[in-house]
Amino acid sequence: MSTFKAPKGTYDLTPPDSAKYLAVREALSAPLKNSGYGYIETPGFEDVALFSRGVGESTDIVSKEMYTLTTKGGTELALRPEGTASVLRAALEANLHKLGNLPVKLWYSGSYYRYERPQKGRYRHFSQVGAEAIGAEDPALDAELIILADQAYRTLGLQNFRILLNSLGDKECRPVYRDALQEFLRELDLDEDTRRRIDLNPLRVLDDKRPEVQKQLVGAPVLRDYLCDACKAYHEEVRDLLTAAGVVYEDDEKLVRGLDYYTRTTFEFVHDGLGSQSAVGGGGRYDGLSEMIGGPALPSVGWALGVDRTVLALEAEGIELELPSSTSVFAVPLGEEARRVLFAKVTELRRAGVAADFAFGGRGLKGAMKSANRSGARFTVVAGERDLAEGVVQLKDMESGEQQAVALDALVAEVQQKLA
Ligand code: HAM
Q1: Buried b (16+ CB within 10 A) or exposed e, 75-113
Q2: Which of the listed residues 128, 166, 255 should we mutate to test ligand 1's pocket, taking the one with most ligand atoms within 8 A of CB?
Q3: 378: CA distance to ligand 1 center in Å?
Protein backbone atom coordinates (compact mmCIF):
# COMPACT_ATOMS: atom_id res chain seq x y z
CA MET A 1 0.00 0.00 0.00
CA SER A 2 1.30 3.46 -0.74
CA THR A 3 -0.01 6.71 0.65
CA PHE A 4 -2.23 7.01 -2.40
CA LYS A 5 -5.31 5.27 -3.67
CA ALA A 6 -7.10 5.28 -7.01
CA PRO A 7 -9.46 8.30 -7.00
CA LYS A 8 -13.06 7.77 -5.92
CA GLY A 9 -15.17 6.14 -8.59
CA THR A 10 -12.18 4.66 -10.41
CA TYR A 11 -10.40 1.35 -10.23
CA ASP A 12 -7.23 -0.17 -11.60
CA LEU A 13 -7.02 -3.03 -14.02
CA THR A 14 -4.35 -5.41 -12.86
CA PRO A 15 -3.29 -8.89 -13.95
CA PRO A 16 -4.76 -11.43 -14.16
CA ASP A 17 -8.18 -9.70 -14.46
CA SER A 18 -6.88 -7.08 -16.86
CA ALA A 19 -6.54 -9.81 -19.51
CA LYS A 20 -10.30 -10.23 -19.38
CA TYR A 21 -10.81 -6.53 -20.13
CA LEU A 22 -8.50 -6.70 -23.11
CA ALA A 23 -10.35 -9.74 -24.39
CA VAL A 24 -13.70 -7.98 -23.96
CA ARG A 25 -12.50 -4.89 -25.82
CA GLU A 26 -11.21 -7.13 -28.56
CA ALA A 27 -14.48 -9.07 -28.79
CA LEU A 28 -16.61 -5.91 -28.84
CA SER A 29 -14.59 -4.38 -31.66
CA ALA A 30 -13.99 -7.53 -33.74
CA PRO A 31 -17.33 -7.40 -35.60
CA LEU A 32 -16.67 -3.75 -36.53
CA LYS A 33 -13.23 -4.44 -37.96
CA ASN A 34 -14.91 -7.11 -40.01
CA SER A 35 -17.56 -4.75 -41.38
CA GLY A 36 -15.71 -1.85 -42.92
CA TYR A 37 -15.21 0.31 -39.83
CA GLY A 38 -11.84 2.11 -39.65
CA TYR A 39 -10.10 2.86 -36.36
CA ILE A 40 -10.16 6.42 -35.02
CA GLU A 41 -8.56 7.89 -31.93
CA THR A 42 -9.25 11.35 -30.58
CA PRO A 43 -7.86 13.30 -27.60
CA GLY A 44 -9.05 12.61 -24.07
CA PHE A 45 -10.17 16.22 -23.75
CA GLU A 46 -11.96 18.66 -26.02
CA ASP A 47 -13.33 22.19 -26.04
CA VAL A 48 -16.14 22.25 -23.46
CA ALA A 49 -18.49 23.81 -26.00
CA LEU A 50 -18.26 20.74 -28.24
CA PHE A 51 -20.11 18.76 -25.59
CA SER A 52 -22.44 21.49 -24.33
CA ARG A 53 -23.59 22.10 -27.89
CA GLY A 54 -23.45 18.50 -29.04
CA VAL A 55 -24.62 16.44 -26.08
CA GLY A 56 -26.86 19.26 -24.83
CA GLU A 57 -26.75 21.92 -22.15
CA SER A 58 -29.73 20.47 -20.30
CA THR A 59 -28.47 16.90 -20.06
CA ASP A 60 -27.08 15.51 -16.80
CA ILE A 61 -23.88 14.64 -18.61
CA VAL A 62 -23.17 18.27 -19.47
CA SER A 63 -24.84 20.11 -16.59
CA LYS A 64 -23.60 17.92 -13.73
CA GLU A 65 -21.10 15.31 -14.80
CA MET A 66 -18.37 16.93 -16.88
CA TYR A 67 -14.84 17.27 -15.62
CA THR A 68 -13.93 20.73 -16.84
CA LEU A 69 -10.73 22.69 -16.54
CA THR A 70 -9.31 25.98 -17.67
CA THR A 71 -5.82 25.74 -19.10
CA LYS A 72 -3.05 28.18 -18.20
CA GLY A 73 -3.76 29.74 -21.59
CA GLY A 74 -7.41 30.29 -20.64
CA THR A 75 -8.97 27.60 -22.83
CA GLU A 76 -11.95 25.79 -21.36
CA LEU A 77 -11.60 22.06 -21.80
CA ALA A 78 -13.56 19.03 -20.67
CA LEU A 79 -12.44 15.46 -20.22
CA ARG A 80 -14.54 13.64 -22.78
CA PRO A 81 -17.76 12.28 -21.23
CA GLU A 82 -18.61 10.36 -24.42
CA GLY A 83 -17.20 9.69 -27.87
CA THR A 84 -19.74 10.68 -30.51
CA ALA A 85 -19.22 14.45 -30.51
CA SER A 86 -15.43 14.02 -30.56
CA VAL A 87 -15.46 11.49 -33.37
CA LEU A 88 -17.74 13.63 -35.50
CA ARG A 89 -15.58 16.70 -34.77
CA ALA A 90 -12.48 14.78 -35.84
CA ALA A 91 -14.11 13.39 -38.98
CA LEU A 92 -15.18 16.88 -40.03
CA GLU A 93 -11.77 18.33 -39.23
CA ALA A 94 -10.07 15.68 -41.37
CA ASN A 95 -12.69 16.16 -44.11
CA LEU A 96 -13.35 12.43 -44.11
CA HIS A 97 -16.87 13.15 -45.35
CA LYS A 98 -15.49 14.82 -48.46
CA LEU A 99 -13.44 11.87 -49.59
CA GLY A 100 -16.45 10.61 -51.48
CA ASN A 101 -17.19 7.43 -49.60
CA LEU A 102 -20.27 7.93 -47.46
CA PRO A 103 -20.99 6.72 -44.91
CA VAL A 104 -17.68 7.18 -43.14
CA LYS A 105 -17.60 4.21 -40.78
CA LEU A 106 -15.39 4.54 -37.71
CA TRP A 107 -14.76 2.62 -34.50
CA TYR A 108 -12.96 3.57 -31.31
CA SER A 109 -12.06 2.32 -27.89
CA GLY A 110 -11.01 4.33 -24.88
CA SER A 111 -11.60 5.96 -21.52
CA TYR A 112 -14.45 8.35 -20.74
CA TYR A 113 -15.08 10.48 -17.68
CA ARG A 114 -18.27 11.42 -15.89
CA TYR A 115 -18.55 12.90 -12.44
CA GLU A 116 -21.35 10.56 -11.36
CA ARG A 117 -22.24 9.14 -7.97
CA PRO A 118 -20.17 5.95 -7.98
CA GLN A 119 -21.83 2.59 -7.48
CA LYS A 120 -21.47 -0.89 -8.90
CA GLY A 121 -21.34 -0.53 -12.68
CA ARG A 122 -21.15 3.26 -12.53
CA TYR A 123 -17.71 4.79 -12.45
CA ARG A 124 -16.16 8.19 -12.97
CA HIS A 125 -13.64 6.71 -15.33
CA PHE A 126 -14.97 3.98 -17.57
CA SER A 127 -14.26 2.40 -20.87
CA GLN A 128 -16.25 2.15 -24.09
CA VAL A 129 -15.92 0.56 -27.49
CA GLY A 130 -17.85 2.66 -29.95
CA ALA A 131 -18.87 2.87 -33.58
CA GLU A 132 -20.11 5.78 -35.67
CA ALA A 133 -21.42 5.65 -39.25
CA ILE A 134 -21.40 9.19 -40.56
CA GLY A 135 -23.18 10.71 -43.53
CA ALA A 136 -25.92 8.32 -44.58
CA GLU A 137 -29.61 8.09 -43.89
CA ASP A 138 -30.28 4.43 -44.44
CA PRO A 139 -32.24 2.14 -42.13
CA ALA A 140 -29.87 -0.70 -43.07
CA LEU A 141 -27.07 1.22 -41.37
CA ASP A 142 -29.03 1.48 -38.12
CA ALA A 143 -29.80 -2.23 -38.41
CA GLU A 144 -26.18 -3.08 -39.19
CA LEU A 145 -24.96 -1.45 -35.99
CA ILE A 146 -27.53 -3.17 -33.80
CA ILE A 147 -26.77 -6.52 -35.45
CA LEU A 148 -23.02 -6.05 -34.89
CA ALA A 149 -23.44 -5.20 -31.21
CA ASP A 150 -25.70 -8.21 -30.79
CA GLN A 151 -23.05 -10.35 -32.49
CA ALA A 152 -20.32 -8.94 -30.24
CA TYR A 153 -22.22 -9.78 -27.05
CA ARG A 154 -23.10 -13.23 -28.35
CA THR A 155 -19.54 -14.15 -29.29
CA LEU A 156 -18.67 -13.41 -25.66
CA GLY A 157 -21.34 -15.92 -24.68
CA LEU A 158 -23.78 -13.42 -23.17
CA GLN A 159 -27.42 -14.42 -23.27
CA ASN A 160 -29.36 -12.49 -20.67
CA PHE A 161 -29.43 -9.18 -22.47
CA ARG A 162 -32.30 -7.49 -24.21
CA ILE A 163 -32.41 -4.89 -26.96
CA LEU A 164 -34.76 -1.97 -26.37
CA LEU A 165 -35.73 -0.03 -29.48
CA ASN A 166 -37.51 3.25 -30.06
CA SER A 167 -37.81 6.10 -32.51
CA LEU A 168 -37.52 9.67 -31.27
CA GLY A 169 -38.83 11.22 -34.49
CA ASP A 170 -37.15 14.03 -36.38
CA LYS A 171 -37.18 17.81 -36.51
CA GLU A 172 -40.62 17.76 -38.11
CA CYS A 173 -42.55 15.60 -35.71
CA ARG A 174 -40.68 15.75 -32.43
CA PRO A 175 -41.45 19.42 -31.68
CA VAL A 176 -45.16 18.71 -32.08
CA TYR A 177 -44.86 15.86 -29.63
CA ARG A 178 -42.73 17.93 -27.28
CA ASP A 179 -45.46 20.58 -27.09
CA ALA A 180 -48.11 17.99 -26.34
CA LEU A 181 -45.95 16.36 -23.69
CA GLN A 182 -45.14 19.68 -22.03
CA GLU A 183 -48.80 20.52 -21.87
CA PHE A 184 -49.49 17.19 -20.16
CA LEU A 185 -46.58 17.46 -17.74
CA ARG A 186 -47.43 20.98 -16.61
CA GLU A 187 -50.67 19.67 -15.13
CA LEU A 188 -48.83 17.23 -12.83
CA ASP A 189 -47.73 17.59 -9.22
CA LEU A 190 -43.94 17.73 -9.56
CA ASP A 191 -41.01 19.18 -7.64
CA GLU A 192 -39.15 22.32 -8.70
CA ASP A 193 -36.29 20.50 -10.45
CA THR A 194 -38.61 18.36 -12.48
CA ARG A 195 -40.75 21.36 -13.39
CA ARG A 196 -37.68 23.06 -14.74
CA ARG A 197 -36.92 19.97 -16.76
CA ILE A 198 -40.33 20.22 -18.44
CA ASP A 199 -39.14 23.37 -20.16
CA LEU A 200 -35.61 22.24 -20.88
CA ASN A 201 -35.94 18.59 -21.72
CA PRO A 202 -39.45 17.22 -21.24
CA LEU A 203 -38.66 13.81 -22.74
CA ARG A 204 -36.25 13.16 -19.89
CA VAL A 205 -39.10 13.48 -17.41
CA LEU A 206 -40.47 10.25 -18.87
CA ASP A 207 -37.22 8.63 -17.79
CA ASP A 208 -37.72 9.58 -14.13
CA LYS A 209 -37.58 6.32 -12.21
CA ARG A 210 -39.28 7.58 -9.01
CA PRO A 211 -42.59 5.79 -8.42
CA GLU A 212 -44.40 9.02 -7.45
CA VAL A 213 -43.48 10.44 -10.85
CA GLN A 214 -44.07 7.25 -12.82
CA LYS A 215 -47.55 6.99 -11.30
CA GLN A 216 -48.50 10.35 -12.75
CA LEU A 217 -47.07 9.56 -16.15
CA VAL A 218 -49.74 7.01 -16.95
CA GLY A 219 -51.65 8.37 -19.90
CA ALA A 220 -48.87 10.71 -21.05
CA PRO A 221 -48.84 11.26 -24.80
CA VAL A 222 -46.50 8.77 -26.50
CA LEU A 223 -44.16 9.73 -29.28
CA ARG A 224 -45.23 6.83 -31.44
CA ASP A 225 -48.60 8.48 -31.99
CA TYR A 226 -46.87 11.64 -33.23
CA LEU A 227 -44.26 10.20 -35.61
CA CYS A 228 -44.50 11.64 -39.12
CA ASP A 229 -44.92 9.26 -42.05
CA ALA A 230 -41.23 9.41 -43.00
CA CYS A 231 -40.11 8.53 -39.46
CA LYS A 232 -42.69 5.77 -39.21
CA ALA A 233 -41.59 4.20 -42.49
CA TYR A 234 -37.94 4.50 -41.52
CA HIS A 235 -38.55 2.83 -38.18
CA GLU A 236 -40.57 0.03 -39.74
CA GLU A 237 -37.70 -0.69 -42.10
CA VAL A 238 -35.18 -0.87 -39.25
CA ARG A 239 -37.46 -3.25 -37.38
CA ASP A 240 -38.00 -5.45 -40.44
CA LEU A 241 -34.26 -5.69 -41.10
CA LEU A 242 -33.58 -6.71 -37.51
CA THR A 243 -36.30 -9.32 -37.64
CA ALA A 244 -34.95 -10.67 -40.92
CA ALA A 245 -31.52 -10.95 -39.30
CA GLY A 246 -32.99 -12.93 -36.44
CA VAL A 247 -32.23 -10.21 -33.90
CA VAL A 248 -34.88 -10.08 -31.20
CA TYR A 249 -35.75 -6.63 -29.82
CA GLU A 250 -38.40 -5.05 -27.66
CA ASP A 251 -40.22 -1.87 -28.60
CA ASP A 252 -39.78 0.57 -25.75
CA GLU A 253 -41.58 3.84 -26.31
CA LYS A 254 -40.17 5.21 -23.04
CA LEU A 255 -36.57 4.88 -24.19
CA VAL A 256 -35.31 8.46 -24.58
CA ARG A 257 -31.57 8.17 -23.69
CA GLY A 258 -29.57 10.77 -21.83
CA LEU A 259 -28.07 12.72 -24.72
CA ASP A 260 -29.86 15.40 -26.72
CA TYR A 261 -28.50 14.64 -30.17
CA TYR A 262 -30.67 11.64 -30.94
CA THR A 263 -33.21 11.59 -33.74
CA ARG A 264 -35.27 8.66 -34.99
CA THR A 265 -33.70 5.29 -34.07
CA THR A 266 -32.56 4.89 -30.46
CA PHE A 267 -31.67 1.66 -28.74
CA GLU A 268 -30.17 0.28 -25.59
CA PHE A 269 -28.73 -3.10 -24.68
CA VAL A 270 -29.74 -3.94 -21.12
CA HIS A 271 -28.51 -6.86 -19.08
CA ASP A 272 -30.80 -8.41 -16.52
CA GLY A 273 -28.06 -9.40 -14.09
CA LEU A 274 -26.70 -5.93 -13.35
CA GLY A 275 -29.20 -4.28 -11.03
CA SER A 276 -29.83 -0.58 -11.53
CA GLN A 277 -26.92 0.08 -13.91
CA SER A 278 -28.30 -2.33 -16.44
CA ALA A 279 -27.40 -0.62 -19.74
CA VAL A 280 -24.38 -2.39 -21.18
CA GLY A 281 -24.54 -0.34 -24.36
CA GLY A 282 -26.61 2.20 -26.22
CA GLY A 283 -26.83 4.38 -29.23
CA GLY A 284 -28.93 5.74 -32.00
CA ARG A 285 -29.25 8.10 -34.90
CA TYR A 286 -28.09 11.70 -34.65
CA ASP A 287 -29.05 13.40 -37.90
CA GLY A 288 -28.65 16.96 -36.60
CA LEU A 289 -25.42 16.74 -34.59
CA SER A 290 -23.08 17.77 -37.38
CA GLU A 291 -24.98 21.01 -37.94
CA MET A 292 -25.16 21.58 -34.18
CA ILE A 293 -21.37 21.69 -34.07
CA GLY A 294 -21.00 23.85 -37.16
CA GLY A 295 -20.68 21.19 -39.86
CA PRO A 296 -22.75 20.35 -42.93
CA ALA A 297 -25.85 18.16 -42.79
CA LEU A 298 -24.57 14.63 -42.17
CA PRO A 299 -27.18 12.17 -40.94
CA SER A 300 -25.40 9.56 -38.82
CA VAL A 301 -25.88 6.68 -36.43
CA GLY A 302 -23.72 4.95 -33.84
CA TRP A 303 -23.39 3.21 -30.52
CA ALA A 304 -21.07 2.78 -27.57
CA LEU A 305 -20.76 -0.39 -25.52
CA GLY A 306 -19.53 -0.19 -21.95
CA VAL A 307 -16.51 -2.41 -21.37
CA ASP A 308 -16.77 -2.31 -17.54
CA ARG A 309 -20.41 -3.32 -17.55
CA THR A 310 -19.87 -6.01 -20.17
CA VAL A 311 -17.29 -7.58 -17.84
CA LEU A 312 -19.82 -7.39 -14.98
CA ALA A 313 -22.42 -8.98 -17.24
CA LEU A 314 -20.06 -11.87 -17.98
CA GLU A 315 -19.56 -12.34 -14.24
CA ALA A 316 -23.31 -12.19 -13.63
CA GLU A 317 -23.79 -15.02 -16.13
CA GLY A 318 -20.87 -16.97 -14.72
CA ILE A 319 -19.04 -16.90 -18.04
CA GLU A 320 -15.30 -17.55 -17.88
CA LEU A 321 -13.60 -16.40 -21.05
CA GLU A 322 -11.10 -18.85 -22.40
CA LEU A 323 -7.95 -16.84 -22.22
CA PRO A 324 -4.96 -18.76 -23.54
CA SER A 325 -1.94 -18.39 -21.28
CA SER A 326 0.28 -15.66 -22.56
CA THR A 327 3.46 -17.61 -21.83
CA SER A 328 4.34 -20.87 -23.60
CA VAL A 329 7.76 -21.58 -22.17
CA PHE A 330 9.19 -20.71 -18.77
CA ALA A 331 12.93 -21.11 -18.25
CA VAL A 332 14.41 -22.04 -14.88
CA PRO A 333 18.21 -21.90 -14.65
CA LEU A 334 20.14 -23.63 -11.88
CA GLY A 335 23.40 -21.78 -11.38
CA GLU A 336 25.24 -18.88 -12.96
CA GLU A 337 26.32 -20.59 -16.17
CA ALA A 338 22.80 -21.84 -16.78
CA ARG A 339 21.45 -18.31 -16.25
CA ARG A 340 23.45 -16.98 -19.15
CA VAL A 341 22.67 -19.91 -21.43
CA LEU A 342 18.94 -20.03 -20.71
CA PHE A 343 18.54 -16.26 -20.87
CA ALA A 344 20.01 -16.44 -24.39
CA LYS A 345 17.60 -19.30 -25.22
CA VAL A 346 14.63 -17.26 -24.00
CA THR A 347 15.68 -14.41 -26.26
CA GLU A 348 16.02 -16.85 -29.15
CA LEU A 349 12.58 -18.35 -28.45
CA ARG A 350 10.99 -14.90 -28.35
CA ARG A 351 12.63 -13.89 -31.60
CA ALA A 352 11.23 -17.07 -33.12
CA GLY A 353 7.77 -15.95 -32.03
CA VAL A 354 7.39 -18.22 -29.00
CA ALA A 355 6.07 -16.50 -25.86
CA ALA A 356 8.69 -17.17 -23.24
CA ASP A 357 9.60 -15.99 -19.76
CA PHE A 358 12.47 -16.47 -17.37
CA ALA A 359 12.96 -16.98 -13.63
CA PHE A 360 14.46 -13.62 -12.75
CA GLY A 361 15.87 -12.65 -9.43
CA GLY A 362 18.07 -15.68 -8.85
CA ARG A 363 15.66 -17.45 -6.49
CA GLY A 364 15.98 -21.15 -5.70
CA LEU A 365 14.42 -23.97 -7.69
CA LYS A 366 11.27 -24.12 -5.57
CA GLY A 367 10.41 -20.45 -5.97
CA ALA A 368 11.26 -20.55 -9.66
CA MET A 369 8.99 -23.55 -10.25
CA LYS A 370 6.20 -21.69 -8.48
CA SER A 371 6.62 -18.80 -10.92
CA ALA A 372 6.63 -21.30 -13.79
CA ASN A 373 3.33 -22.74 -12.59
CA ARG A 374 1.79 -19.37 -12.05
CA SER A 375 2.78 -18.25 -15.55
CA GLY A 376 0.53 -20.94 -17.00
CA ALA A 377 3.32 -21.91 -19.39
CA ARG A 378 2.84 -25.18 -21.24
CA PHE A 379 6.55 -26.04 -20.96
CA THR A 380 9.32 -25.38 -18.51
CA VAL A 381 12.95 -25.59 -19.47
CA VAL A 382 15.27 -26.44 -16.57
CA ALA A 383 19.04 -26.69 -16.83
CA GLY A 384 21.93 -27.04 -14.39
CA GLU A 385 25.67 -27.57 -14.68
CA ARG A 386 25.37 -31.25 -15.50
CA ASP A 387 22.82 -30.69 -18.30
CA LEU A 388 24.95 -28.01 -19.84
CA ALA A 389 28.03 -30.22 -19.73
CA GLU A 390 26.03 -32.70 -21.82
CA GLY A 391 24.73 -29.96 -24.09
CA VAL A 392 21.08 -30.51 -23.12
CA VAL A 393 18.21 -28.91 -21.20
CA GLN A 394 15.30 -30.64 -19.47
CA LEU A 395 12.05 -29.85 -21.25
CA LYS A 396 9.00 -30.56 -19.13
CA ASP A 397 5.46 -30.68 -20.47
CA MET A 398 3.42 -29.17 -17.64
CA GLU A 399 0.21 -30.76 -18.93
CA SER A 400 1.36 -34.38 -19.15
CA GLY A 401 4.16 -34.08 -16.60
CA GLU A 402 6.53 -35.76 -19.05
CA GLN A 403 10.13 -34.63 -19.05
CA GLN A 404 12.80 -35.22 -21.68
CA ALA A 405 16.34 -34.08 -22.34
CA VAL A 406 16.56 -31.95 -25.47
CA ALA A 407 19.77 -30.86 -27.16
CA LEU A 408 20.34 -27.18 -26.55
CA ASP A 409 20.60 -26.49 -30.27
CA ALA A 410 17.34 -28.27 -31.01
CA LEU A 411 15.30 -26.59 -28.26
CA VAL A 412 13.65 -23.84 -30.31
CA ALA A 413 12.64 -26.19 -33.13
CA GLU A 414 11.45 -28.82 -30.68
CA VAL A 415 9.25 -26.37 -28.77
CA GLN A 416 7.85 -24.90 -31.98
CA GLN A 417 6.94 -28.36 -33.20
CA LYS A 418 5.27 -29.32 -29.95
CA LEU A 419 3.26 -26.10 -29.82
CA ALA A 420 2.12 -26.32 -33.43
P1 HAM B 1 -24.20 6.26 -23.21
O2 HAM B 1 -25.48 5.52 -23.15
O3 HAM B 1 -24.06 7.49 -22.40
O4 HAM B 1 -23.99 6.60 -24.75
O5 HAM B 1 -23.00 5.29 -22.86
C6 HAM B 1 -22.85 4.04 -23.52
C7 HAM B 1 -22.49 2.97 -22.52
O8 HAM B 1 -21.34 3.34 -21.77
C9 HAM B 1 -23.55 2.71 -21.45
O10 HAM B 1 -24.56 1.86 -21.94
C11 HAM B 1 -22.73 2.07 -20.36
O12 HAM B 1 -22.55 0.69 -20.62
C13 HAM B 1 -21.41 2.78 -20.48
N14 HAM B 1 -21.32 3.82 -19.45
C15 HAM B 1 -21.80 5.08 -19.50
N16 HAM B 1 -21.53 5.75 -18.35
C17 HAM B 1 -20.89 4.89 -17.54
C18 HAM B 1 -20.31 4.97 -16.22
N19 HAM B 1 -20.39 6.09 -15.51
N20 HAM B 1 -19.71 3.86 -15.70
C21 HAM B 1 -19.62 2.72 -16.43
N22 HAM B 1 -20.12 2.60 -17.68
C23 HAM B 1 -20.74 3.66 -18.23
C24 HAM B 1 -22.94 7.27 -25.25
O25 HAM B 1 -21.92 7.49 -24.66
C26 HAM B 1 -23.12 7.64 -26.71
N27 HAM B 1 -21.91 8.37 -27.16
C28 HAM B 1 -23.35 6.39 -27.55
C29 HAM B 1 -23.50 6.68 -29.00
C30 HAM B 1 -22.57 6.53 -29.97
N31 HAM B 1 -24.57 7.18 -29.60
C32 HAM B 1 -24.34 7.35 -30.89
N33 HAM B 1 -23.13 6.97 -31.13
Answers
A1: eebbbbbbbbbbbbbbbbeeebbeeeebbbbbbbbbebb
A2: 128
A3: 39
